[in-house]
Amino acid sequence: MLSEAIPLAGSGTAHLRGEDVLLGVQDLVVEYPGRAGTVQAVSKVSFDVLPGETLGIVGESGCGKSTTGRAVLRLERLTAGRITFAGEPLEQAGERRMRTLRRDMQMIFQDPLGSLNPRRPVKDIVVEGLALAGAPADERAAVSADVLAQVGLSGDRFPGMLPRQLSGGQAQRVAIARALALHPRLLICDEPVSALDVSVQAQILNLIEDLKAQHDLTVVFIAHDLGVVRAVSDNVLVMYLGKVCEFADAEQLYDTPAHPYTRALLDSVPLTDPDRGFAGPALEGDVPSPLSPPRGCRFRTRCPLARERCAAEEPQIREVRPGRYAACHFPLPEAP
């Protein structure tokens, strides 16, 4: 059941649950200074996630969704903003404290093979975190066998294999097992199926859903595939060029989007009928450079509904329908 949502300062949304919030992000900013200027990767993004929920974060490549996920774990340097996990502010935590906290916050990376140590066998890879925490060898061996069995890699074959001997789906299962070995409360999935075949994608998605229920996990699921995000998410956050465009319950957002960008993303998805092509016109033009984003609304240069106000004034996230939040001066009307 969804909680009542209220706007936060900046461009995000929050659930009105107080201490029940497991992950809270407020006015998150991540920038990368360079010779050509400063890349504004994430610009005042706010959201929170309640225990047991799955928040989907979706948007085109380069919108800042993966950077947001990595910043939550402090794998990216925060320029500004506040992140809390179970009420504890992460931006103030030292590296030693973060190492402890990361046992409760694990990440599945986009490139499964690239995230695995190529020189270590699978049985050791999945308990790397336990080894760093000083767990004894017998405990690590028992946990390794258990988590590999949970992800469907049981038996004598897989534990001694090296990452190069694994298929993409098998490597992703190893990455999931490594995350589960520490019994985390929060799992951040960064494009966990984008590099996999469609048939394998379904297996991995089903696995994540099953493990979420078994381990009572809270999940942040990052992807550009709208269909995948809809299948696994309770709520969805839509990002464009480092900003939040829309936040809503997944079913509501997909059925009646409020932001023109969300509508354009959905219209760009091919329909199942090959004779019909797409639901609507595809997005025109390229995403502007994060080195110099447009003034006002960042989507206005590609928006078919843009007006003078969109260039003069940046829209703030606000409730445009009951329980629906969008950063748009002229949100789409609700379908009859």
Helix and strand arrangement:
Elements: E1 5-7, E2 11-15, E3 23-34, E4 37-49, E5 54-58, H1 65-72, E6 80-85, E7 88-89, H2 95-101, E8 105-108, H3 122-125, H4 128-132, H5 137-150, H6 168-180, E9 186-190, H7 198-215, E10 218-223, H8 226-232, E11 235-240, E12 243-249, H9 250-255, H10 260-267, H11 308-312, E13 318-321, E14 324-326
Parallel strand pairs: 2-4, 5-10, 5-11, 8-9, 9-10
Antiparallel strand pairs: 1-2, 3-4, 3-6, 6-7, 11-12, 12-14, 13-14
Helix pairs in contact: 5-6, 6-7
Provide the CATH superfamily of the largest domain.
Answer: P-loop containing nucleotide triphosphate hydrolases
| Name of the CATH first level of the largest domain | Alpha Beta
Q: What's the number of helices?
A: 11
And the CATH topology of the largest domain? Answer: Rossmann fold
CATH structural architecture of the largest domain:
3-Layer(aba) Sandwich
The helix/strand class is alpha/beta
Strand order of the largest sheet: 8-9-10-5-11-12-14-13
The proportion of residues in beta strands is 15-25%
Please count the beta strands (DSSP E, at least 2 residues each). 14
